[in-house]
């Protein structure tokens, strides 16, 4: 029998921006295969996470995905849904709003932007105390110590995600100093959300040994000429992947126009500070779409057009602190409402 360390990860009840919580369960297993069938539910004190009252504080953790933990011997990362004691999804459980039928048809690729912050200065890497580094221009996809900050952390995080079995697709330094991005893709909205949260968990945990922390705020540098951070949502279903019809794409894009408010409500807190119409964003007050237009609400990728309108769309509005479950759920609802 071997001792197995299971790190149960869940989202708390803080609103509108939930936080990750986790705790370790050590179990004895013989020939553990790392499957969900081999592990069970667990519980936690919901009164400490804004998910229950003290007089009836137990909430249930239901495992929904499991990955090897590359930093622990005999360790596994267990993404969970929070359930109420009666077995129904807790109100904070956005994953449960994605139906299994929709999950089979929709694919999502998320582009997670973030700033690496120095704990000692509480500033992005490369920022001097009391001032600013050189203006934006040379940081994006840069190489060399003059303009590139935090590569050791970013490279280690990429290796951890790949070792954990996530469908990790890439990394790049972003437009602002100390700002980076990673990309994940999954066939299935739930799986895409699971992998973003586990990747965030690995990134946040990794900062503990560097003296850094990750800032997911969509505009951490306030009203300045520095870029904010988003989590662009690339999405498709069988219609978008196969229709070959420009008019169908336009009809689906138009379905987003009357529900701008509903999307913004779940696209991340403080997103109005980022969606200003500047820095490659559309205004939060407008809706637009266009081919290869990074200033639009929804971009139709040039690759989709070159394939004869067989591909995907990119919603550029979600903020870096958005919940991928909520974002995917809302996108699915809107795409299904399109009159095609």
TrEMBL record:
<dbReference type="Pfam" id="PF00120">
    <property type="entry name" value="Gln-synt_C"/>
</dbReference>
<dbReference type="InterPro" id="IPR027302">
    <property type="entry name" value="Gln_synth_N_conserv_site"/>
</dbReference>
<dbReference type="InterPro" id="IPR008147">
    <property type="entry name" value="Gln_synt_N"/>
</dbReference>
<keyword id="KW-0067">ATP-binding</keyword>
<comment type="similarity">
    <text>Belongs to the glutamine synthetase family.</text>
</comment>
<comment type="subunit">
    <text>Homooctamer and homotetramer.</text>
</comment>
<feature type="domain" description="GS beta-grasp">
    <location>
        <begin position="4"/>
        <end position="87"/>
    </location>
</feature>
<keyword id="KW-0436">Ligase</keyword>
<keyword id="KW-0963">Cytoplasm</keyword>
<dbReference type="Pfam" id="PF03951">
    <property type="entry name" value="Gln-synt_N"/>
</dbReference>
<dbReference type="InterPro" id="IPR027303">
    <property type="entry name" value="Gln_synth_gly_rich_site"/>
</dbReference>
<dbReference type="InterPro" id="IPR014746">
    <property type="entry name" value="Gln_synth/guanido_kin_cat_dom"/>
</dbReference>
<protein>
    <recommendedName>
        <fullName>Glutamine synthetase</fullName>
        <ecNumber>6.3.1.2</ecNumber>
    </recommendedName>
</protein>
<dbReference type="InterPro" id="IPR036651">
    <property type="entry name" value="Gln_synt_N_sf"/>
</dbReference>
<dbReference type="InterPro" id="IPR050292">
    <property type="entry name" value="Glutamine_Synthetase"/>
</dbReference>
<dbReference type="GO" id="GO:0005737">
    <property type="term" value="C:cytoplasm"/>
</dbReference>
<dbReference type="GO" id="GO:0004356">
    <property type="term" value="F:glutamine synthetase activity"/>
</dbReference>
<dbReference type="GO" id="GO:0005524">
    <property type="term" value="F:ATP binding"/>
</dbReference>
<dbReference type="GO" id="GO:0006542">
    <property type="term" value="P:glutamine biosynthetic process"/>
</dbReference>
<keyword id="KW-0547">Nucleotide-binding</keyword>
<comment type="function">
    <text>Catalyzes the ATP-dependent biosynthesis of glutamine from glutamate and ammonia.</text>
</comment>
<dbReference type="InterPro" id="IPR008146">
    <property type="entry name" value="Gln_synth_cat_dom"/>
</dbReference>
<feature type="domain" description="GS catalytic">
    <location>
        <begin position="89"/>
        <end position="340"/>
    </location>
</feature>
